[in-house]
Backbone:
């Protein structure tokens, strides 16, 4: 909507030792993860082996009310999901958690990511007689697990075998009648962490640590790349058959996706963004009077740029937090109007000043062009744009919405052409080498494929454009 990468998805799972209000835990945690997806959400609850669930289009508070939460109340295990925005009339068919019944019981599945071989697997399963009811890659993953249940003794063993077949990015939570199983793909592209409820009352897993804090859980650790964690009445069991890689976390988690109060792979997201600004100041210095950030993800990087450069930090743009997520954009003029409704300038900060504007990225360029006009209309003498990420030039195969290189301005124009197109006085991107240093001390490597074209695994030449649109 505002020329940003759309958030991926958020997953949550909880296992308690006694029957408790797991529904409200899940509801609160999904609120904390709402930034990861605003199109749809869902919660599935296991009450003595019976799985009840509610999924719907909209924000958490739009899909769930008091009556629905009371209907789902009870049980010891729950999984939840929020999903990022995507266009198309098929969006409801991708809402999660996915609840399936199979020959050995039932399960509910939530996941964040995208399988690069989803279509290949689906074709193979359908040729063997499988019938699919959705167009989601989650159902392909669920089928890969349930297929193995015919020959395996447990759901975790089935997942372990299925992980030999599926390729791509996934952080998932599976709820069976008696267990909560969570896992990350062997490259650890998507985040997932574990926590413990007060008094040892149970365990939780979430895409980000901010969800643990929201329900009063203590952060324990990140799930390892390739690790399967099984939580049951017997405690916690770790299966590390697929472990061994250092991991290639999507670096955009630190740049934009994650909440700044989250800790991912041992590094504060807030601190990583400040460091990005500091490195940016070293790589692209300029003479200016004030540094401002584009709310919200540009603010921390702007602070880092100001600290390193010595240029005063100021609040120059205000975000209107009451703009509806469904604001209609039927034309270019309307899209520009939506940015002006979303953001406004503080003239006293920028008037007559040489302004450095820090944002996390430029995807298509339309929003930044309007932001610069807003600042110039407010009296800014010069506007220098600095981005806390490298230029986006390549598709993402692992769950974000960079679906076509043709839609990326950095893939269509030179650096100077982009500067002229957005009417900036200067333009500077964080280098690929710089972005790999922002999360100093992280217990992982990083995927920078959308910047460099180098991915942690073999990917197709282009994203599939199949009729099922199996990307989550």
Residues:
């Amino acid at each position: 909507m505002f020329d940003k990468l759309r958030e991926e998805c958020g997953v949550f799972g909880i296992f308690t030792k006694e029957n408790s209000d797991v529904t409200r835990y899940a509801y609160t945690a999904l609120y904390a993860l709402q930034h990861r997806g605003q199109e749809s959400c869902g919660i599935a609850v296991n009450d003595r082996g019976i799985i009840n669930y509610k999924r719907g289009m909209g924000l958490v508070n739009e899909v769930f009310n008091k009556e629905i939460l009371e209907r789902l109340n009870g049980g010891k295990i729950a999984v939840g999901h929020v999903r990022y925005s995507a266009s198309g009339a098929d969006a409801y068919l991708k809402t999660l958690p996915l609840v399936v019944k199979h020959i050995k019981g039932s399960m509910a599945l939530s996941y964040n990511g995208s399988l690069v071989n989803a279509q290949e697997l689906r074709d193979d399963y359908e040729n063997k007689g499988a019938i699919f009811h959705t167009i989601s890659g989650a159902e392909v993953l669920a089928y890969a697990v349930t297929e193995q249940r015919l020959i395996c003794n447990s759901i975790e063993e089935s997942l372990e075998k299925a992980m030999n077949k599926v390729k791509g990015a996934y952080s998932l939570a599976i709820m069976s009648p008696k267990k909560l199983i969570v896992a990350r793909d062997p490259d650890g592209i998507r985040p997932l962490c574990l926590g413990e409820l007060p008094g040892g009352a149970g365990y939780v897993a979430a895409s980000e640590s901010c969800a643990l804090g929201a329900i009063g859980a203590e952060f324990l650790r990140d799930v390892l790349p390739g690790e399967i964690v099984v939580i049951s009445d017997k405690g916690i069991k770790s299966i590390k058959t697929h472990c061994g890689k250092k991991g290639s976390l999507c670096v955009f988690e630190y740049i934009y996706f994650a909440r700044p109060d989250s800790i991912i792979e041992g590094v504060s997201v807030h601190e990583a963004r400040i460091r990005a600004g500091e490195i940016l100041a070293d790589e692209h210095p300029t003479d200016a009077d004030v540094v401002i950030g584009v709310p919200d993800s540009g603010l921390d990087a702007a602070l880092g740029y100001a600290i390193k450069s010595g240029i005063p930090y100021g609040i120059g743009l205000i975000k209107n937090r009451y703009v509806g997520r469904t604001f209609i954009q039927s034309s270019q003029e309307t899209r520009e109007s939506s940015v002006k409704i979303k953001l406004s300038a503080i003239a006293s900060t920028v008037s007559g000043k040489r302004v450095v504007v820090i944002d996390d990225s430029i995807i298509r360029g339309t929003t930044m062009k309007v932001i610069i006009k807003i600042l110039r209309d407010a009296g800014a003498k010069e506007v220098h744009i600095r981005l806390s990420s490298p230029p986006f030039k390549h598709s993402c195969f692992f769950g974000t919405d960079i679906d076509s290189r043709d839609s990326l301005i950095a893939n269509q124009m030179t650096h100077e052409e982009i500067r002229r197109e957005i009417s900036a006085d200067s333009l500077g991107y964080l280098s690929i080498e710089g972005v790999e240093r922002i999360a100093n001390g992280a217990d992982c490597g990083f995927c920078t494929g959308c910047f460099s074209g180098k991915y942690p695994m073999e990917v197709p030449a282009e994203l599939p454009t199949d009729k099922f649109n199996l990307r989550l």
Q: What stands out?
A: The first strand starts at residue 9 and ends at 16.
